[in-house]
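Quick one: structure for this chain?
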Amino acid sequence: MKEIKAIIEKYHSIDFTKNKAALATVVRVEGSSYRRTGARMLITDSGDWIGGISGGCLEGDALKKAKFAMAQNMPAIVTYDTTDDDPFQIGVGLGCNGIIDVLLAPLNFQDINNQVLTLQQCLESREPNVVITIIKIKGDFKNIQLGEVFIYKNGNDFPLTFISTNVISDIQICLKKEKSESKTYQCLEGEIQIFIEVIIPATHLIVYGGNYDIYPMVKLAKEVGWKVSVVCNPLKVHKSLFEIADNVVDKEKSEEIEIDPFTVALLMAHDYETDFKNMRNLLKTSIKYIGMLGPKKRTDKMFLKLLEEKNPVSEADLDRIATPVGLDIGATNPEEIAISIIAEIKTFFTKRTGQRLKYRVGAIYGD
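Got it. Here's what it folds into:
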């Protein structure tokens, strides 16, 4: 999501009366690659670009080919085969042993549904969006063009009516897995391949606290592209917090914050009564993850107090409370602790273990 935001910001800074631009998107990966499907870079005809489609090996060649696509005003698919041992093959330096398809799409700034502006429509949504991109056409398809994109909403406004049943079924599977895929369909008109991209909202981190250790937490969360709200006493925090965080919320109005499936909470007020109050309130919500800073015995004391109040913590609640919060990386200072916590939240959403990759069985990007 951070890359998409940067691309949109760059797009709006371009003077299209003087310059042209194209969007390069990884739409299919077979085997291994440094970046996965959905990786993007925005390229201008002046040679400026932002984002990335690889670890740096493909960008130069993509830049040249994008300029050609802009000059022709025609979208194109470029395939990079990094499985080839030929030292002169573009991308072989990646050493990833994969095949990568990249869509190079010139951008028409007058089209409100061009590739970048379509992504912008997904930016503020707090629900998963599905963006459909046409990446291959063989046959006679009327009103469908290579590189065309649109947001899928429901079957009633689905333009690919000739294959709608199969596509909608695949979209539902992708949504369930929260994973993007390229699919090929055969029909009377011929063959069409589409990129079904699932765009998940940015993680919304709610930090409860106003002490000095929240600053590296907020900064690092923003660096990875998350949305961050801080619940505190606004009069007692440094003014820089208002520039770093997306929202600074008075602790007396914390219950006004909207919680969705991509929202997580972190309790780090360093005050027992404050953290207890916040945890008790959060347990009444549907939030899926509550991180508690501090030793486990401190949280156990809170559990006991809830039991005494005849409001015991359920097994389901225990599953969503991370205490002590963070991965065991030996963190000792606020910056390291922030890394530990953000890494654990990432593993929570990706359903990973947090173990070292050298011990992982199977592909890094696999399920």
